[in-house]
C-alpha cells in the first residue's frame, strides 16, 4: 500500500484541507469497502480510536491513523473490492466478501446469478 498525498483540490469529493490534515502524505490505509478484523485487534483499535482526533474520511481514520497508533498491521485483500458494472464478472465475485457500490436491485440480481450453478460452473474455485 503506497503512501498517497492528500487531495488539495477544493472541487474534489475527497478534498482534505491543510487545516484538517497538515502532513504531506497520508498514512498507509485500505479503502472502506469493508473490513475483516481479528478479535485481538478490536480492543487496541477501539482504544486508539478514542485517543485519535475525529477524521471524516473513515477508511483513512480507521485503517490508517487509528491502526498506525494501535500498532495493528493492515493488509489489503482483493476479496473486499470496489466495483462497477464493467468488472462485475461472476467468477470474480464468487470469492468476494464485500463489494460496493451496488444498488439494491443490482445486489439482488448478482445474488440470484451467483446461486445459479450453471452461471458459475466454469469458474475456478475461490482460493
TrEMBL record:
Transmembrane helix keyword on record: yes
Main location: Golgi
Catalytic EC class: transferase
Gene Ontology biological-process annotations: protein O-linked glycosylation
Keywords: Glycosyltransferase, Golgi apparatus, Membrane, Signal-anchor, Transferase, Transmembrane, Transmembrane helix
Membrane topology note: Single-pass type II membrane protein
Recorded coiled-coil stretches: none
Gene Ontology CC: one annotated term: Golgi membrane
Identification of the protein by name: Hexosyltransferase
Origin organism lineage: Eukaryota, Metazoa, Ecdysozoa, Arthropoda, Chelicerata
Amino acid at each position: 500500500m503506497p503512501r498517497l498525498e492528500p487531495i488539495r483540490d477544493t472541487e474534489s469529493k475527497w478534498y482534505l484541507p491543510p487545516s484538517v490534515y497538515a502532513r504531506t502524505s497520508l498514512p498507509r490505509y485500505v479503502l472502506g469497502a469493508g473490513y475483516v478484523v481479528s478479535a485481538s485487534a478490536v480492543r487496541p483499535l477501539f482504544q486508539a480510536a478514542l485517543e485519535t482526533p475525529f477524521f471524516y474520511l473513515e477508511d483513512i481514520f480507521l485503517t490508517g491513523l487509528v491502526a498506525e497508533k494501535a500498532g495493528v498491521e493492515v493488509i489489503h485483500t482483493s476479496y473486499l473490492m470496489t466495483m462497477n458494472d464493467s468488472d462485475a464478472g461472476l467468477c470474480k465475485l464468487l470469492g468476494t466478501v464485500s463489494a460496493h457500490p451496488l444498488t439494491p436491485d443490482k445486489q439482488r440480481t448478482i445474488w440470484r446469478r451467483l446461486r445459479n450453478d450453471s452461471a458459475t460452473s466454469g469458474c475456478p474455485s475461490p482460493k
